[in-house]
Structure prediction request, 58 residues.
Amino acid sequence: MADKGGMDKIKGKAKEAAGKATGNDRMKAEGKMDQAKGKTKDAVTGAKDSLRDKRDHR
Prediction:
């Protein structure tokens, strides 16, 4: 399975950089939102893995 959170963070960084380079505030904001979405996906995945590990060790 692909690391979707990581991909969102990479895409977000690229958008944010492009927005800064072109002076496009909307693109810069979209990039920050994509990065936040990626961090959230990573956190949810981590929580699921942690719960799954606890369940499996019973």
Notes: DSSP finds two helices and no strands in the chain.
